[in-house]
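LAB NOTEBOOK - FOLDING QUEUE
OPERATOR: T.R.
BATCH SIZE: 2
PURPOSE: Compare the predicted structure-token outputs for two unrelated chains run back to back under identical settings.
PRIORITY: normal
REVIEWER: second-year student, initials M.K.

ITEM 1
FIELD SEQUENCE / FIELD STRUCTURE:
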Amino acid sequence: MEFWTGKNVFITGASGLLGSWIAERLISLDANVTILLRDIVPTSKLLSGKEMSKVNVIKGSLEDYFTVERAVNEYEIDTVFHLGAQTIVGTANRSPLSTFESNIKGTWTMMEAFRNSKLAQSIVFASSDKAYGIHENLPYTEDTPLQGSNPYDVSKTCSDLIVQSYAHSYGIRAGIARCGNLYGGGDLNFSRLVPGTIRSILKKEAPVIRSDGTYVRDYLYIEDAVDAYLLLPENLHRKEISGQAFNFSIGNRMTVLEVVQLILKKMDSELQPKILREAESEIKNQYLSSEKAKKLLNWEAEYQMDAGLERTIPWYKEYFRKSNI
């Protein structure tokens, strides 16, 4: 794709699931990739792979304005993918201050550094379906009010609004991506449903469901998410796209129990899930409409849950085979 050839791209949160996949895709498209790295995570898909030798690494914290500003200016960044955040709901409940620091302060730091750059052209921000908070009328559309109430949800509501504010106040070419739960090879946070369930089955242990299993969610395969994220900067020159938020969804919501049962079936396992009924401070039903993305960006998910799992499960089988865990 010629759009990305030679383009200078800055990624925050590149050691995470989405960041790793986006960095690797951009490298394959001959972009010049620079990442901001706070912690060394040896198991990260990007950090442990061969593509790591092809990226520029800025060591520092997202909350440090001068580090971010230096990265954007010295590496002559054109496009930013701001993915860096504390992404775990449970962690946010235990430590709201650090979550607010990374998610909210980190966002205004990034946006201010971008605003003060003479070369930066476009920025894509990773929001979330959690930014919408609790609503009776579903699915969420982009016009649904942002009203998070729990610490993680509030951090995404605030940071989403901050990006909108910079876009509308300063004419910044910004795109906001709101996805449901991402899954795919490389996600080693086993507190999440898909990787945790696959690991349990491979270890011949009953998969654990923290809730009662009836919570409804959107699940988006990682390669569909990468396609969506790259599509935004390719279209931010359009007035009807710049400054806008877009939901990205497969349009097929599932309960937690249905996801676990599907994984069990795909892995030919007769194990039965262990339902703890312990989950608290999480929204009961969350799912998205991506009609706006279909209409304005011509985007549709390629992989339904069944097909996405067929690409995901083999990755984990190989990972555990190599690591002997």
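ITEM 2
FIELD SEQUENCE / FIELD STRUCTURE:
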Amino acid sequence: MDGRVLDAPTPIRWMIVNLFILPFRPKNSAHAYQQIWEKDGSPLILHSKRLKERVSDELADLPISLGMRYGNPSLKEAADQLRAQGVEKVLLVPLYPHYAMSSFETVVAKVQENESHEDKPMDISVMPAFYNRDTYIDALYASAHDSLKQSFDHYLFSYHGLPERHLRKSDITGQHCLKVDNCCSIDSSAHQFCYRHQVMETSKLFASKANLPQGKWSVAYQSRLGRDPWLNPNTADRVVELAEQGIKKLWVIAPSFVSDCLETLEELEMQIADDFKAAGGELFYYAPAMNTHDSWIKSLTTLITEQT
């Protein structure tokens, strides 16, 4: 029901959620979660809690709390925890490298909304998306470095998908994204909030860092929902296409996810890997998310320190 995720008018959103999503999706999601569940809980919350603990150890003088946009601990619980410690100024760190209204923006908006209802709201500043920061690219590369020592036929960057209309809505110029040829490559103030431009920049920077040969890497988008036009190509279709072209050994990374979760562990590493092999591929290697890799802890603490 989040209007920044399903951006239809409220009555239509209610109908979509209650008539088309809730009758089917919970059962399917429950089965998917069973495939990846750990004895202590969901991988996403476990990785996130460990990340928070590691960063807290590195930044011992700063109170740090963890909140989830949906679920527990909630963003309000996280803020209240800081408030109880006497905190008045907060740096909000959305753990999304790339800006999108359905991820980065909705977190910021929810925190600001929560604080607007407080008698003494905390002063909130926001760490910008870090998609092109050297420290993030270095951490992403370091976490995947060992897997890159072997040879692959192709290297695929798989990002969470977005409906094309989200790019148009986030275009502050109103006349650039998906309206200009090669819009992601032409300088524009729209890029500050353009998800596709930002994921392409991450991919190019990583490919350069890892010395990936031109023509042997590409970008695709996973986790789509509904029938509206989404960013293409679709990862599930792309891996089949690659297999049919003769690619036998495929290396895949998902840079939009800093922690492994349902979309990486079940959708990508299981479902999409099976699609690749069914189409004739032989080796599908998923490079795990950074999770609590030492390089990511160093990168995140650097980004936070620069803002504080």
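REVIEWER COMMENT (ITEM 2): The chain has three domains: 1-36, 40-131+294-307, 134-287.
FOLLOW-UP: none requested
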